[in-house]
Write a structure and sequence with these properties.
Length: 130
């Protein structure tokens, strides 16, 4: 049985995404793997939520059989949150690809791009459909 699922997002550089997750969204760095003066891999956690980033260069060394495939992104993530207003304030200034909306399935959502270009949708459930 599956105990946990964690997304691994592949990027050219990890450093631009650190403040998005740590400073803006309150995640904690749990694993950092350096490669020269940069990061090759980073794991972040907030409660039971976890996300990992790995560089293309690291994938070339670590996963050579699929390293060309990891460059095909971007990735789309869907995150359920308790307070969408707090998230909107935290990610202010990020590129919005999905303006705030209320869905037929009762979620109030907004979607932004992380600094590496991956698509992140934040959703608060319990919002009345409009």
């Amino acid at each position: 049985m599956v105990k946990k699922i964690t997304a691994v997002l592949f990027v050219k550089e990890i450093e631009p995404v650190v403040s998005f997750w740590v400073s803006k969204l309150g995640f904690t760095k749990t694993i950092e793997v350096p490669q020269g003066n940069k990061l090759a891999f980073l794991a972040l956690e907030s409660g039971s939520a976890e996300i990992m980033y790995q560089t293309y260069a690291s994938a070339d060394q670590d996963l050579p059989s699929v390293s060309a495939e990891v460059r095909k992104g971007p990735t789309f993530l869907y995150l359920e949150v308790e307070n969408l207003e707090a998230i909107k304030a935290a990610v202010k200034g990020a590129e919005v690809y999905l303006p705030e909306r209320t869905t037929f399935y009762g979620a109030k959502e907004i979607g932004v791009k992380d600094p590496a270009g991956h698509f992140i949708t934040f959703a608060q459930f319990g919002a009345p459909a409009s």
